[in-house]
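> Could you send the Tyrosine-protein kinase CpsD prediction when you get a chance?

Sure thing. Input:
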Amino acid sequence: MMLKLFSKKNKKKQKESYSMNYGVSLLAHDDPTNVISEQFNTIRTNIQFSSVDTKLHSILFTSAAPSEGKSTVSANLAVSWAKQDEKVILIDADLRKPTIHKTFNQSNQSGLSNYLLGSANLDEIVKETKVPNLYVITSGPIPPNPSEILASKRIGNLMEELQNRFDLLMFDAPPVNSVTDAQVLATKIDGTILVTPQGVAEKHSVAHAKKLLDTVHANILGAIVNQAEIDKSSNYYGGYYGIEQ
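Output:
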């Protein structure tokens, strides 16, 4: 049992290291007819129908623990949403271990942290991507106090400005059980989705994450269950994705 747990930890560390160095795979853009790309489209539709009476303007993606697929899911769903002719912006709110700048091949010299600290304006941090209708805000330089600046009034100003320019705001936030950042953001966002890998995430860990989100009255739209393995030959993610409410 100890060897099995050690193996799982090593695998998660490898995935974390890979995504931080190279970003995540954008199957929804690079291979749109792939079965997994179609599953992202299905999940997008399910999320849209999860809030029929109220249009979602902002969605937060998080997980219970690190390396559970939240960045892969948020990036690919952002692509899927943008393909519907919706103007979408994906914000890297993981100010500790960011990946979006690597995924979309963007500079990270100026980003969310610069805006929240007052050293950059919105036009300086919003960046176009290769995907039509999809824009990103990278994390920016890692600050010494991520939770504090995410809780500042500037985040409210940012969301107000972005909602005037975009149809949907998508936030990639840190794991709930690791730091308070996702809880802080969830109080300001229309809906929260918990990404959890089948056969990897521990039940008590997921339950604790949900409890933490419930504590701040987050609007939990559901959980995306994924089973992701890195294919050594292609560096794409395989497995399947589904949403549970």
